[in-house]
Amino acid sequence: MLGVTNLIPGPNSTQMAIHIGYRRGGVKGLLIAGLCFIVPATAVTILFAYLYVTYGTIPELGSLMRGIRAAIIAVILGAVVRLGKPFRSRPFMLLTGACTAILSVFRVDPLLLLVASGAAGIAWRNREKALRALRSLAAVPLITALSLPGSAGGGPEGATLTGLGLFFLKIGSILYGGGYVLVPFLQEGLVDSRGWLTQSKLIDAIAVGQFTPGPVLSTATFIGYLLLGIPGALVSTGAIFFPSFLFVLLVGPLVPRLRNSPHMQGFLDGVNAGALGLMAGVCWTLGASTLTGIVAGAIFMIALFVQLRWRVNAAWVVAGGALAGWLGGLL
Fold this sequence. Notes:
The chain is mainly α and 331 residues long. Helices cover 79% and strands 0% of the residues. Residues 132-156 have low confidence and may be disordered.
């Protein structure tokens, strides 16, 4: 079952619950297990969203949120460092991740970068003996992507339930590499292209998805509530999680063949490296607008050190950032 969650797009924890339900009770079990795993997180996130919208302008809460934003960037960067440790001895993975990070800073479409990374992984896997030639070939798809138009640059538009649903449905269908890879897609799609969110609200949404129970993808619930209230929260949640139900239902019988396919293994290697690159790139983008003061910079450095030194649960790091931000506001 763990192999299934690594082979298909979507949040691993949610898909594991869905797959267990499917094995134990068929389609009914799939629905029961998935809904029971997602609904509590959705309810808690909607509550946080309501409190955020209602009380988000209080000065004391503003200081608290500034601390949370700095800590969240440290949490994401810490995840990049930890997840990237196995890649240190693999030049292709490092090269792909670095190219993806650089291109994402220049706002190349994240989906294009992930597909290019997967293609590079297949090329590397099939030409492993010719290592020198591969070092140049593996970078070609990513370099070529720089000349293609990204989707950034669109003017602000009014958010609609249909637009919101289609946006999160796309993300749920292509998300590889864990919940944090959601962040660059949100940055590009909702902040840069559509202008539906400000960057500070995006970081707040990531923070809520981090310290509420359940999958990080509940960030979509929070964003939906901010934009269109409870209908937006429900549509966003349903859209981003629906592909996970469908993938588990369709791909389960094919897993043994996929797991033994060198093409699929190479594709996953490339996509995983690209996903880490996207995470690193969005840390740079978010940090440039968030870590603008001494207090925020200090919170970020301390939170990153704590993450790397002791691997403290991310929820505690976020809570510590909130406390430090509040104290900084008092000072």
